[in-house]
Amino acid sequence: MILELDCGNSFIKWRLISRPDGETLEGGVASSDEQLLTELIGLQKRPRSARLVSVRSDEETRSLVARLHQQFGIDVLCASSSQVLAGVSNGYREYERLGLDRWLALSGAFHLAGRACLILDLGTAVTSDFVAGSGEHLGGFICPGVPLMRNQLRTHTRRIKYDDEAVGRALQELLPGRSTIEAVERGCLLMLRGFVQTQLELARDYWGRDFDVFLTGGDASLVSNMLPGARVMPDLVFVGLALACPIP
Length: 248
Description:
By secondary structure, the chain is of the alpha/beta class.
């Protein structure tokens, strides 16, 4: 059994996969190291090896690796920046500054597509990356996602106050809002869709229609109907992680 971890700034996404077929046996999202260990200890199956990608500080990552080793007696492979991975050349001038989660996701996408691809990660922040058919990473864009836009408006505009439970109701349609929550939520969604549409147009300028689109991240469902041919892959980063940290 292989434990795979995607350690973000706020949450740790994890899954336990079988060897050698890679079937997902268990998975979840933990808000802390303690919660992660509690969930893993409660599993009937125990990991025999592990690999992770982390955008946390080196100290935080080392602490988690040490706790996993202490609890399960396993060594943990940690993904690191590289100039080339699985046929993809890193497009950043300083390759080590490209976020590891982005690097693994775009490398995994190219590995699956085998041709030019546009990768859209729609989470707290929104990122796009363009990979040519040659494997050259052309770069990408970063902008605030819906959670960041919403929170900024709540934080800096005194009269915008509402709870998260009301969000779903506000997004049932996209007519001009007749309340503050409708105006904010629909406005943020339209900004997100506008960003996605612009990325799609840029990709078409590059490659015509000869490319694949990959969607990942928690808000992928908000734009999936715009991109009926897109490959929605919540675990795309794990595809790249397996390429970066192969376990025999």
